[in-house]
Amino acid sequence: MLTLIPGETTLDQLETLWRTDAAAQLDPRTAAAIATSAGRIASAASGDAAIYGVNTGFGKLASVRIVPDDTATLQRNLILSHCCGVGAPLAEQTTRLMMTLKLLSLGRGASGVRPEIIALIEGMLARRVTPVVPEQGSVGASGDLAPLAHMAAVMIGAGEAMFEGQRLSGAEALARAGLAPVVLGAKEGLALINGTQFSTALALVGLFRAMTCLRTAIVTGAMSTDAIMGSTAPTRAEIHTLRGHRGQIDVAAAMRDLLEGSEIRESHREGDARVQDPYCIRCQPQVTGAALDLLRFAGQTLITEANAVTDNPLVLSDGSIVSGGNFHAEPVAFAADQIALAVAEIGAIAQRRIALMVDPALSFGLPPFLTPEPGLNSGLMIAEVTTAALMSENKHLANPCSVDSTPTSANQEDHVSMAAHGARRLGLMTRNLSMILGVEAICSAQGIEFRAPLTTSAPLTRVIEALRAHVDAIGADRYLAPDLEKAQSLVEDQVLVSAAGLEVAS
């Protein structure tokens, strides 16, 4: 169980929660602010002034007044009517991250929910009651309304949830876990479904996976450099400090460390006839480093959003209850688009390194398609073609989603962010990229082994050993699909990065 402080939670904490599937709870010091704002909402609900979502209808129906006796019905109807998500269920780990983000938002004490709401979300996380949340249905504007409604539905004993490996009704899942549903008070349903937590959770998962791929790309890129007997001169520190971009400097330093002590490199340091390597080798720090800078920038946006209050209306510090627009997910949409660009470019340059290694005209003495008996065997010919297909798909998917606004809700919500599907596509893109990098690992290890008796550096030797524990060298042609899947898993599970001892900060 990890205790979180709203406004101070870090990317590392959220990544740990997601990767370990741990539970979270709020720091007890949040209780006073939560109770104060809840009291202010309770008073307003019985007052004469019209306050959106407290004693009025929602969206285009905001002008309709709701009497106090109908408050609970209003909030329950809101949740049930908004459960319009479609598509495959969100991964349970991602749903739990979304719930944690909702805790952080409510924990700032500006949403007006009672402590019972906080306690139930914490209890569901601790006892592993995970709502079934469809992936599609949000336009990322008045909050992620449909997905968050499916979460809230379980809290009122409706909807569906996973518990102990079974898909159950929300009421049954809560009962089996020893939890009771809540009756929502004034504004509480609105507080639960207004907000960007679905989009932000998906974008964060995309960021975590993208950073894993980027670190792996530094490793596989160094291996490819050695496999084709590429020059390490372009990684010299002064080249990169003269330009000044932090990501570029960091990637060049990491590559220098990874290639230090390689016998392959030393064998052609003097007398190499090539003046320059192709860009996919020579410009790795510039391209991968630019992607690193972009991911870092997106990470700052997303951790700010993860700690933000994003529902509406808000209870401000002077006690006033004011409608605003923090539920609009434009920052998340932009961050998702930035991550998508970085993922596409990491894959694009990695794919060119694979193409370089399998091409005997360019690979500086490696056999065609990295097979010891070309002609009789096709080796890694079609593995390279697969990476080209995945690279191309990612290029299409990298087109921006944030510019695709469309009016909804009878033109009340007339500009929307499209953050949800901008973030959702990152799952497919990072899976594609991890496969590209897995194939690069196979190809570069094969290429390095063709350089025997010369050996690569100690860190890259450890990477090859980690790969060979799961994927044998390619001799005679064999059924390759399982090997590609194993290599992809080694990328996603950070095995290759760990073997290299590589540390590059987010």
UniProtKB/TrEMBL annotation:
GO CC annotation terms, alphabetical: cytoplasm
Record's signal peptide: none
GO molecular function, one term: histidine ammonia-lyase activity
Enzyme Commission code(s) on record: 4.3.1.3
Keyword terms: Cytoplasm, Histidine metabolism, Lyase
Main location, first listed in the record: cytoplasm
Modified residues (2,3-didehydroalanine (Ser)): 142
Entry superkingdom: Bacteria
Position of the 5-imidazolinone (Ala-Gly) cross-link: 141-143
Compartment(s): Cytoplasm
Post-translational modification: Contains an active site 4-methylidene-imidazol-5-one (MIO), which is formed autocatalytically by cyclization and dehydration of residues Ala-Ser-Gly.
Catalysed reaction equations from the record: L-histidine = trans-urocanate + NH4(+)
Pfam family, one: Lyase_aromatic
Pathway as given in its UniProt record: Amino-acid degradation; L-histidine degradation into L-glutamate; N-formimidoyl-L-glutamate from L-histidine: step 1/3
GO BP terms in the entry: L-histidine catabolic process to glutamate and formamide; L-histidine catabolic process to glutamate and formate
Annotated NCBIfam families: hutH (TIGR01225), PRK09367.1 (NF006871)
Family designation: Belongs to the PAL/histidase family.
Protein name, entry field: Histidine ammonia-lyase
Lineage, opening ranks: Bacteria, Pseudomonadati, Pseudomonadota, Alphaproteobacteria, Rhodobacterales
